[in-house]
Write the structure tokens for this entry.
Amino acid sequence: MKTPILTLVNSSLEAKDAAMKSFFSQPATRDETAIEPALVQIPEGWFLMGSETGQDCERPVHRVWIDSFHLAATQVTNAEYNRFLRATSALPPPFWHNPDFNHPAQPVAGVAWFEASRYCEWLSVQTGRAYRLPTEAEWERAARGGLEQKQFPWGDDPPQSLPNYAIRWQNGPETVGCYAPNGFGLYDICDNVHEWCSDWYDPNCYASSPERNPQGPEQSSMQPPRKASRGGSWRHHIKVARCSARSSIPPEFQYADYGFRIASE
């Protein structure tokens, strides 16, 4: 199990420039809190979920049907999350004032699963549209971008083949949407930060998972219980995850490489 990075850089507040200070001190307005994310419609269809060459928890490969749904084009950013904080007086995540993590266009990092769910509930009330975290199956269907059983959103070429791979993600996640999206129009879908999913995590659930719109197990088989997550991490040795790769941590944990992306019908 990874150890949470909870050490903040005390000098970071002095290092922030005037623009950043102005952004985070602005009062909330109704127009700001009603802003919805850019959504991408993921078409309904069958796909093969899992991988025969991945980890044990990615097997067996199984056929899954996913109804059409919408997924945010990018991970939730600090700018978006800041509206939630100002509107609800919730506590910010532990890296909020660290200059490696607090650019408005970076994905918010260090958010626990419970807070990500609360953000979805708040945004649903503000907009009148129901938002939620995606299921693991929805996430993998979306990440593949219509490419059946390819390792990555672009195909099978290794992550090191990506433009500027060697110089990216030096000290934290990148600002969202800097590079090309996948086939469905989703940015950073397998990199930058891990993304929370709605499912409880069970490494053996694929053996009995339903074919149509699986929601995950009713409870986690792990002790302590874990929530599922997907995608890569700026602080991993290999920065981009395979589409089928699974991960999980307890829902109260706040890791520096955990964020989220929201879904809607």
Notes: The longest strand covers residues 194-200. The domain at 37-264 is CATH 3.90.1580.10 (paralog of FGE (formylglycine-generating enzyme)).
